[in-house]
Amino acid sequence: MAEIAGFAGMSHSPFATLLPPPSEGGPGAKFLADADRARRAVEALAPDAVVVIGPDHFHGNFYDVMPPFVLGVEHAVGFGDFGSTEGPLPVAGELAWSVHNGLTTAGFDVSLSYSLTVDHGIVQTYEMLTGGTGLPMVPVVVNTAAPPLPTLERCVALGQALGAALRSASFPGRVLVAASGGLSHWLPSNDPREVAGERRESLIHGRSDVRAFAAAREPRVRAMGGDPGARVNTEWDRWFLDRLAADDAGSVADLGHETLETMAGSGGHEVRCWLIGQVAAGAPLAWTSYEPVPEWITGMGIGTTFPVA
Question: How far is the C-alpha of 155 from the C-alpha of 177, rounded, in Å?
């Protein structure tokens, strides 16, 4: 059976690569230094595989069909957006199928992909925690883009089922659970009911020419970076990390969709990934780093369930 070696939660942001700190004291420098410490701690744990839970930013999933959860079981390909790795990524297939079987037994009809495209929402944290793309992974993509989102309660339940599936998996090794999701940040709506014109068409039909859609979208994202006055709710970010440190995902789930968005912004829905991962690991979070980085449009946090030297 598999052994859960630990859990690591980490924020992601395109601007970690697009706007790296100009100096040791620059915006984001503390986060990147602590991310390197987390990487060294993961290396010391020597996991044999990593389950990476993260969102997609309209590079793999669109509103022609938008599943709440997708599990990659055979091939995964990095889209290569914002400096993340492009091309094939190693998938721990045996472990992935064990996860699928466990989730199915628990009543989760998770969508399957034999060839899953993942963007920086999965790949950036995977690379930063493992030091590259060599460690076999099991990608779990969570819809955090726009309604209909999986409820927070459903995400907690998925975390419980995922933890049980991993502990009973027919995989003879140690597994790191990693969650990739921003903390508080405010982004333009991606809800097809609230946008119009060419952008709406891209959200729904972007799969037909995903490279063209990404090429049109990336300049808009880049234009959002570098604003030192961008909104970040530091108080809420710290409250959220404290709740996971108290092994109290239920209090976060009790917020519900609307309160979460009010407190943490539309981008704050990505904390669903942290909920799933921390509950799966079944241990309180020790949050080891937090830095509000308005220039990166997000609160950047790192939390683990293992010591970070």
Answer: 15
Instruction: Determine the pLDDT at residue 194.
Output: 95
d(CA 160, CA 162) in angstroms, rounded, equals 5
Q: Is the peptide bond preceding residue 147 cis, with omega within 30 degrees of 0?
A: no
Burial class (CB in 10 A: 0-12, 13-18, 19+), 77: middle
Instruction: Say whether pLDDT at 23 is over 90.
Output: no
Q: How far are the Cα atoms of 4, 8, 18, 211, 266 from residue 161, in angstroms, in the given order? A: 14, 18, 36, 35, 26
In angstroms, rounded to a whole number, what is the distance separating the alpha carbons of residues 158 and 300?
24
pLDDT tens digits, residue range 225-266? 999 999 999 999 999 999 999 999 999 999 999 999 999 999
How big is the CA angle at 246 (ends 241 and 247), to the nearest 5 degrees?
A: 95
Q: How many residues does the chain have?
A: 309
Please tell me the predicted confidence (pLDDT) of residue 309.
55
pLDDT in tens, 92-130: 999 999 999 999 999 999 999 999 999 999 999 999 999
**At CA 70, angle to CA 68 and CA 74, rounded to 5?**
175
Cα 103–chain centre separation: 19
Give the residue numbers annotated as catalytic, written as ranges: 120, 185
